[in-house]
Amino acid sequence: MVIFHIEAIKSCDDVAIIGAGIAGTYAGWRLRNLNKQITVYEYSNRVGGRCYTVKFPDIPDINVELGAMGFTATSHKLRYDTMRELGLSVQKFVLGVAASEDTTVHVRGVHLRYKDLWGTSTLTNYFRMNENQEMFKNYTDVLTTTVPEDAKRFQIKDVDGLQMYKQSSEAQNYIKDTASFLNKGVSASAKVITSPPSHEENEVLTVTTGFSSIPEKLLEEFLRASRRHNIKLNHHLKANKKMRNGYYNLYFERTITRNGRTSIIKNKPLIKKCAKKIILAVNRLSLERLNWKGLHQPNIREYITKAVKDVSAGKLFLVYNFPWWRNSPVYSKYAI
């Protein structure tokens, strides 16, 4: 007979949530009124994960979004509804879904206006496109999915009628080179959107107080709902093991955050915690590194590694004492 210590079982969390990004804080918020003992564990010293808003000292009224920065009410309905329930205000994201037509871009060694990227002369020079041919928006990724017959008429074709993606990767590369930073998952059959949206319901919005406000507000209401709710920062889940009674032992490494960078503290004993249920609200890389037998099953491992596709991306923010670019001959309303 296996005898479990009553006090040890009582100290177990009903739910342990790993990760204090928007997924983890949302999970805690949804469970906040169930009278459960719940702890959120976070690797760094900051709540929010990929929702990360910072402010420069000289321009405190400007939100600098180092992570998520825009959404639409129709495409992100759950987020929008949650924000309204939290009482967070939104405002129009000035850039819309793409650059303005007079924005200057540098692509393949040539300076062009954004409106010229898809002009007939440009397409003819690059693809031998028919000058009378029109381009259509089609968000079906023709390289990885089966395209319905009625959608094939929207695919980009050359003057001989052959789809561009079947000829080479040239069409894909050109679109990727010229797509705005907000465009995602561009396929060989997609058209770059060259003007801000005209329908109010499709307008790109942002959070007035910054995207970090969403997970911060979710966590605030989660902690306020019960004294049995907790947040543990600078905890890295290294391993977990299922016990005979169905509960889990969780083993954490201590971390330290300096100047925005978090690292594991070496040569420190692991912190042991207990939970009846676990929610892994972390990214793919964290799941791949977690020492848990359940995640190493062949089919589960495949789901994890193929769940998302890595895409290189970056953002650069520059701050100046005065708007020198307004005197530039290539100045536009949006960006250079």
UniProtKB/TrEMBL annotation:
It holds the Pfam family NAD_binding_8. InterPro entries: FAD/NAD-bd_sf, Flavin_monoamine_oxidase. Its EC number is 1.4.3.2. One of its GO terms (molecular function) is L-amino-acid oxidase activity. This is IL4I1. It comes from Mytilus edulis. Keywords: Oxidoreductase. It is an enzyme of class 1 (oxidoreductase).
